[in-house]
Amino acid sequence: MIDLKPAYLKKVKTILAANVGEFDVLVYGSRAAGVNKKHSYLDLVVMSDKPLAPARLEKLAAAFREACFPFRVETICWAATGANYRKEMKKTGVLIQETRKK
User: Fold this and answer.
1) Does the predicted model carry a pTM greater than 0.70?
2) Rounded to 5°, angle at Cα 10 from 5 and 100
């Protein structure tokens, strides 16, 4: 379960679809595990096999900043993480976006 108000969840999904729609995206950490506080970050990982271009990640980050959520959104790329971090993400990871089929 992803701990977000329905309106925020819908807006997050819209931003993801517009910017990284071809990738699965997981929510991990406190909001996925249900142990978050009101202002806990929303931690997202884009499940890409290759690192995403920095400009693309910045565009995604800018879209989340412009959305003016009352919490911070942190987005990382799966391909840019290490094995230990991946284990932690998989423990709590909840799918928020499934790859769009072409």
Assistant:
1) yes
2) 140
34-62 exposure pattern, b = at least 16 Cβ within 10 A, e = fewer:
eebeeeeebbbbbbbeeebeeeebeebee
Q: What is the pLDDT of residues 26-41, one digit of tens each?
A: 999 999 988 888 889 9
97: left (phi over 0), alpha (psi -120 to 50) or beta: beta
User: Could you state, in order of their start, the residue ranges of all structural domains in the chain?
Assistant: 6-97
From the candidate CATH numbers 3.40.190.10, 3.40.47.10, 3.20.20.140, 3.30.460.10, the one assigned to the domain spanning 6-97: 3.30.460.10
